[in-house]
């Protein structure tokens, strides 16, 4: 890392925020933005992309002035476990339903922790799955199956 970058963590987190923020803004250009009173499909992604980009710029600039520690070890195994859990959730949620997909997401991703305990992870998975069903399906009314067609649901 060059000597003029005093805080590598802020530098790289700023780059990541900028990439995601600008990507959202660029992708959102293909849709109608609308107005604050009548928002189009691009309004929220572009607004969020702009905010992410601003956070990225602030973090990037701060990395040149504020001293900080170097980037430590990258935990590839843990990163892979969480990535697999998220991909599995995306694959399962439509056809298996929110309950099995959410339960497996929490259970598998908690296995990435070095403090993994099966009983606690099962309790967390059950609690978070019930919370997700209550929030997303019951309160917000999102059209996602609780139990999907693969398991005999709608």
Radius of gyration: 20 Å
Can you summarize the main beta sheet? none
- Topology pattern, helix = H, strand = E: HHHHH
Number of domains: 2
Question: Mean pLDDT, as a whole number?
Answer: 93
Number of helices: 5
Helix content: 55-70%
First-last Cα distance: 54 Å
> What gross morphology would you assign?
flat
Class by alpha and beta content: mainly alpha
Can you characterise this structure?
- The chain has 154 residues and is an all-alpha fold.
- The chain contains 5 helices and no strands.
- The mean pLDDT is 93.
- 21% of the residues are buried.
- Helix 1 packs antiparallel against helix 2, helix 3 packs antiparallel against helix 4 and helix 4 packs antiparallel against helix 5.
- It has helices at residues 8-28, 43-62, 76-92, 98-110, 118-139.
- The chain folds into 2 domains: 8-62; 76-151, no CATH class.
Topology readout:
Elements: H1 8-28, H2 43-62, H3 76-92, H4 98-110, H5 118-139
Q: Which key phrases capture this entry?
A:
flat, mainly alpha, 154 residues
Write a brief caption for the model.
By secondary structure, the protein is mainly alpha-helical. It has helices at 8-28, 43-62, 76-92, 98-110, 118-139.
């Amino acid at each position: 890392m060059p000597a003029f970058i005093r805080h590598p963590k802020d530098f790289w987190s700023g780059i990541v925020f900028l990439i995601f923020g600008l990507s959202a803004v660029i992708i959102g250009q293909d849709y109608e933005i609308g107005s604050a009173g009548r928002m189009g499909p691009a309004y929220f992604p572009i607004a969020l992309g702009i905010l992410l980009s601003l956070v990225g710029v602030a973090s990037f600039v701060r990395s040149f002035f504020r001293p900080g520690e170097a980037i430590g070890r990258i935990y590839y195994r843990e990163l892979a476990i969480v990535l697999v859990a998220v991909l599995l959730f995306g694959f399962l949620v439509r056809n298996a339903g929110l309950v099995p997909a959410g339960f497996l997401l929490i259970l598998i991703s908690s296995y990435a922790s070095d403090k993994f305990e099966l009983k606690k992870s099962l309790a967390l998975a059950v609690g978070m799955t019930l919370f997700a069903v209550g929030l997303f399906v019951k309160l917000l009314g999102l059209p996602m199956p609780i139990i999907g067609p693969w398991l005999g649901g709608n």
